Amino acid sequence: MLLGRVTGTVVASQKEPLMDGLTFLVVRQLGVDNSETGSYVVAVDSVGAGVGEVVMYASGSSARQTTVTRDRPCDAVIMAIVDTWEIDGETVYEK
After folding, report:
1. Residue ranges of domains in the chain
2. What whole-number distance in Å separates Cα of residue 32 and Cα of residue 65?
């Protein structure tokens, strides 16, 4: 699992039929210290995340293990919205 911040949306009117009904979000990966890494991914949203929220996402074959993405051709999925995160007892992020 990776941490990221939702930075935008993607709309695709023509797509593989197995992807119909899914929401696509642009996620910028975050380092453990909440710094942006510069790396982006388009992920299927399985939890109702919104722009600006910090999320946990998975990529690769793990992305096809959620109820929403099972047996669908996706390479990244948002599977949690982060409320808080701490490192060494210090709060790095709080929603």
Report:
1. 2-13+20-94
2. 24
